[in-house]
Backbone:
């Protein structure tokens, strides 16, 4: 797809299938009607959520000395590939497990912060969006889908 912060960003082929799946489920849920542009917007929201989560991991990895080479974005998660050849090797009893836990936690923390920020902005807009109404992810209500895609999808 391109490069971000010097890291190759790749989008998995399943993101091509996701719009079809969303369109099909929306079509079935609404008795034969679906909104294609809103369905594509929901796919864009999901892609942006995965990308933001993985950006948190990439930036944290750079901070601890790892060199991220590539990120593969999938609808349910992302996969980051690191070049550890330049990292100082420590014995197995070293503190690498603490580094790994910090790197694993930063993505969900970024997602939580973005979800709270989005919820606050949507609530402050005064548009009457019900954030706690089921279904959480639905193309018919993109603001609610934004908050829940960031929050739930990335944990």
Residues:
């Amino acid at each position: 797809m391109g490069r971000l912060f010097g890291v190759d960003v790749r989008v998995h082929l399943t993101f091509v299938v996701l719009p079809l799946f969303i369109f099909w489920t929306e079509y079935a849920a609404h008795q034969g009607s679906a909104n294609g542009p809103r369905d594509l917007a929901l796919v864009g929201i999901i892609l942006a959520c995965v990308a933001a989560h993985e950006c948190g991991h990439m930036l944290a990895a750079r901070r601890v000395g790892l060199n991220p080479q590539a990120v593969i974005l999938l609808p349910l998660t992302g996969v980051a590939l690191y070049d550890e050849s330049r990292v100082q090797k420590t014995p197995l009893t070293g503190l690498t497990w603490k580094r790994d836990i910090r790197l694993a936690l930063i993505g969900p923390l970024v997602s939580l912060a973005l979800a709270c920020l989005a919820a606050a902005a949507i609530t402050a807009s005064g548009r009457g969006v019900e954030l706690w109404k089921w279904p959480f992810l639905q193309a018919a209500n993109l603001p609610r889908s934004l908050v829940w895609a960031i929050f739930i999808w990335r944990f």
User: Anything to note?
Assistant: The mean pLDDT is 84.
